[in-house]
Amino acid sequence: MLFAWLRRRNRPTTVPTAVPVLPSGVWPILPAAQLLQPHTQLITHIRKLSGVPDDYWRTLYQPLLDNFAAFVQQTPASEAHHHCAQGGMLTHSLQVMKLALESRKGKMLPPGAAAEDVNKQQHAWTFAIASAALLHDVGKPCSDQKLRLYNANGQDTHNYWQPLQGALQSGYYQVQFVRDRQYRTHELLPPLLARQLTPDAALSWLQQDFPGVFKAWLGYLSGQDEVAGVLGQIVTEADRQSVVDDLSGSRPIHTQQIPTAKAKPLSQRLLTGLRHLLDEQLLTLNRPGAAGFFDGDSLWLVSKRVLDELRNHLEKEGQTGIPSRNDRLMDELQQHGILTPTVAGQAIWNATVKAGTMEQSFTLLRIPASTLWADPAQFPKELEGTITPNAKDGEAKASKPPAPAPTQAAPAPTNQTVVPEAAPAPTVSASPTPVAEQTAPTNTKPVSEDEDAWLLPVDASASVSTDTGQEAAASTSPWGDDDDLLPPTIQPSTPESPSPVAPAPQQAAPVPAHKPATTTNTIPATKVHLPEATGNPDSDDTGERFLHWLSEGLRNGQHPVNTTEAFLHTVKEGVLLVSPRAFKLFAPDNWEYVQKRFTKLKLHKPAPNDSNIWMYHVRGEKKSGMVRGFLISNPLETLGVAHLPTPNKALSLPHQK
Question: 255-278 in b/e burial notation, b at 16+ Cβ within 10 A?
């Protein structure tokens, strides 16, 4: 006992290392494994989407992820825009990687190639898309930010990280934002940094064995869209979707900014400026010649006039970075859920305002009053009249209509919606600037006869089944293990063959990939009586839940129609539901089962060849292609809407001229 006591007494005690007291916004340099750990579930999904054997993952993907995480650490993706929180750069890049791989699974690459070449190059295309997506913003920590270094004791070294010399090693750092930076310089840096972060085995493999893939990869990283081709389109769309998802989230951007951020988000500056102009009555309301009208729920603001005055006000205050184009301002407001969109998802409403002896048509922006003022007591006086949107834009809203004279016949209802029959498909550009109050521009690029850049090659959608027994095509590509597909440093190995298992009918409901944002831009209840939404969100049937998601998204403007991003297109025969895109947006990991359950509802019209999938020609001035999907022949009743846009003139059945 004595000796044991002496041993315990003489045992050296471990003194815990004291964590230094650090200034606000100073973070420790962490190893890659610790940085990636919070994203384990996302990385697991990325690995599944890649569809590669373990050798590929260990030699190509994992080193790239490790190098990238160690390089960007916990830097944000921006100061006052998307993913501006701590760690936003890593989160955004992984999300873009995932979205790009999801899009890649529906494409045969390279476009137009023989099946043998497609099979041979598929691993190379997948890695090129995944790595380009991960590296697309890697230049930001070099050009838009500078990292001030602190030593292991938390002392300021007064030095800054030199990113071209490699990743941070130890100690602490503080992110500072570069003022008066050279705009878009970060887009020029990825080729330089890709050499530092991409495994040597991957570079040699692409450059030696797949020069076409390597060229497209370099083209994207160098900002040459014409060289990047379809690879650039996939990554660009994934980047856009990640930005939209973040900006439309429930947390305001200014609440996510890191401590060293100084700039206010543009969306908040626009709101503050607009509130000031209204409170000071510099923008008049509810009278002839006014800048806007208030119906009790929403402000309807004359688009060009208000945006011009708002820009002038901010510039007079000395604010910088204000876009000079009105469409850019509208995009900013719409991205952050400040504007209430039309049924077609557009920012601009066309409406007729009646008040007293005034009756005039305007192009208007619609903003919920609760977005501008938290206290209803601050709301403006309500218009004594009516605001009636065009039938194609949405419901009518009456605001205390004046009582008719005793001898006057009762006015016709203004809230009836009519489907336009002869209006041509819109052909406006992607982001036009409104030039007159009576013009109806849109900030969404429509599919029209004059626009053909989006067209799919005929075989680009070949993976979509056209047989009733194959509408749920396998989501895992049957990639082989040919020796010439492997990087030179990897020995051939036979991956386990994927064996998809059909989900049980009573499985848990899939989580929709794009839930409508919980913001104030949801169209408020009005006096208009629209049909009830179809489907059942609480049903045990996945097909019913998908139908409700489809109906609700169409009714509240979440799902665009007849645009380049749309999976819904009006045609002469009804509505074309593009497959598999619509189902993948609802349930990326389980879309085949959702599609099968939707088919069981028998809401679609079978194709002439007894299949479920219709093939439509898409014609532009220079290109043509095919788009495929389910045809809903009675869309108003099936989807629970009162009206739909006129048929898209760019789409037609093969036998039509």
Answer: ebbbebbebbbbbebbbebbeebb
With residues binned 3-state (H G I as helix, E B as strand, rest as coil), the percentages for the chain, rounded to 5, are 35, 15, 50
pLDDT at 409: 39
For the entire predicted model, the pTM comes to 0.48
Tens digit of each residue's pLDDT (9 = 90 or more) over 377-398:
888 889 888 999 987 766 544 4
pLDDT of 36 above 60: yes
88-104 vs 62-72: helix crossing angle, rounded to 10: 150
DSSP code for 533: P
Between CA 82 and CA 99 the distance in angstroms is 16
* DSSP class of 313: H
Pick from 515, 521, 88, 556: nearest CA to 336: 521
User: What's the pLDDT score for residue 611?
Assistant: 84
Please report, to the nearest 10 degrees, the dihedral formed by the alpha carbons of residues 221, 49, 229, 629 taken in order: -150
Give tens-digit pLDDT for 243-290.
Answer: 778 766 656 655 677 777 666 677 777 877 787 788 778 888 988 888
Q: What are phi and psi of 576, to 5 degrees?
A: -95, 120
Look up residue 192 and give its amino acid. L
DSSP output for 212-229: HHHHHHHHHHTT-HHHHT
3-state SS class at 574: strand
How far from the centroid of its chain's Cα atoms is residue 373's Cα? 28
At 435, the amino acid letter reads V
Distance of CA 610 to the CA centre of its chain: 35
Residue 628 CA to residue 650 CA, distance in Å, equals 14
Q: Is the dihedral of CA 4, 9, 12, 18 positive or negative?
A: positive
Question: For the purposes of burial, counting CB atoms within 10 Å of the CB of 38, is it exposed (0-12), middle (13-18) or buried (19 or more)?
Answer: exposed
> Contacts for 501-509 with beta carbons within 8 Å, 24 or more apart?
502/593, 503/590, 503/593, 506/540, 507/593, 509/542, 509/545
